[in-house]
Amino acid sequence: ADTLGSAAAGQGRYFGTAVAANHLGEADYAATLNREFNSATPENEMKWDATEPSRGTFTFTAADQVVDHARSQGMDVRGHTLVWHSQLPSWVGGLGAAELRTAMNGHINGVMGRYKGRIHSWDVVNEAFQDGGSGARRSSPFQDKLGDGFIEEAFRTARAADPAAKLCYNDYNTDGVNAKSTAVYTMVKDFKSRGVPIDCVGFQGHFNSASPVPSDFRANLQRFADLGVDVQITELDIEGSGTAQADSYADVVEACLAVDRCTGITVWGVTDKYSWRSGGTPLLFDGDYDEKPAYDAVLTAL
Ligand code: XIL
């Protein structure tokens, strides 16, 4: 196979990218996206601030652009994300507990309902655990006002809103076996034992020299898979360049391929030019859309 998407498909996986609606009009951007990838995640367009900037008023123009483009190209779409402490409009934080619960469920129903039947996997809850060794939940309006049960409630609402979508919990710094990933693992195990609807766990995969690809990445993916959920690498980018970066990308692909339930990989952008890590070069295509050594390494590993 000679593209990322077709090579991944040959392994029974998808290979996706974050997509920004405002770049779709750039010919090289669209050509690279359309040629190489068979899954798309809206980078910002489905977040709460973009879709429900004021209470009960939904705006889907930009999200529609990404979804329509992706589906017209035969790509799957990952939904990202419904309940997250960041990119959250200020009106949400001003609500009391009862109103917040209603608003959370209304938001899930509003966004999932819009795209019902068109989303492969949804990041229902994003980044709900703290960094570091505590294994504790992160402070957020949802956590602080609704308590630990907000995640379970969000997943139950999401299942009813689009029964065909795979429902994922997504986080970062959970790629290796550590206190944070173990806290997520414990939650997923509890959900599976009690029948709370969860289908997958997303591992963002934002790596740099301070936070490299962990040596136990495969083992960590496998322990989650062994709970009976799919695992996905959802926002992969790796700072660096040249051979070192290429080797790290190959390690990630090999880890996913070694785990039967690792169903796909998404990189967090098409080109270094538009990476959220400004000034960095963490992706597979450079600013001229030329293939980097990391691209060749991924294609070889697939
Ligand atoms: C980032 C986007 O790439 C940026 O454009 C935006 O300014 C901030 O969010 N974890 C996530 C993603 O789950 O939604 C974030 O995306 C990166 C970190």
Instruction: State the major sheet.
Output: 8 strands, parallel, barrel
Low-confidence stretches are: none
Q: Output the number of helix runs.
A: 12
List the ions, cofactors and other small molecules found in this model.
(3S,4R)-3-hydroxy-2-oxopiperidin-4-yl beta-D-xylopyranoside
Oligomer: single chain
User: Outline, from the CA principal axes?
Assistant: globular
Spatial extent as radius of gyration? 18 Å
The run of helices and strands is HEHEHHEHHEHHEHEEHEHEH
Structural class: alpha/beta
How far apart, in Å, are the first and last alpha carbons? 9 Å
What's the pLDDT, averaged over the residues?
A: 98
Strand order of the largest sheet: 1-2-3-4-5-6-8-9
Domain GH10: 1-301
Keywords: Carbohydrate metabolism, Glycosidase, Hydrolase, Polysaccharide degradation, Signal, Xylan degradation
Enzyme class: hydrolase
Family: Belongs to the glycosyl hydrolase 10 (cellulase F) family.
Summarize the structure.
Keywords: Carbohydrate metabolism, Glycosidase, Hydrolase, Polysaccharide degradation, Signal, Xylan degradation. The chain has 302 residues and is of the alpha/beta class. The chain has helices at 4-10, 27-36, 48-51, 61-72, 90-93, 97-114, 141-146, 150-161, 179-194, 217-225, 242-257, 293-301; strands at 14-19, 39-42, 76-83, 121-126, 166-171, 200-203, 206-207, 230-238, 262-267.
Please give a structural write-up.
The chain is α/β, with parallel strands linked by helices. The chain has helices at 4-10, 27-36, 48-51, 61-72, 90-93, 97-114, 141-146, 150-161, 179-194, 217-225, 242-257, 293-301, and strands at residues 14-19, 39-42, 76-83, 121-126, 166-171, 200-203, 206-207, 230-238, 262-267. α10 (217-225) packs parallel to α11 (242-257). The protein is globular. The mean pLDDT is 98. Bound molecules: (3S,4R)-3-hydroxy-2-oxopiperidin-4-yl beta-D-xylopyranoside. Its EC number is 3.2.1.8. This is Beta-xylanase.
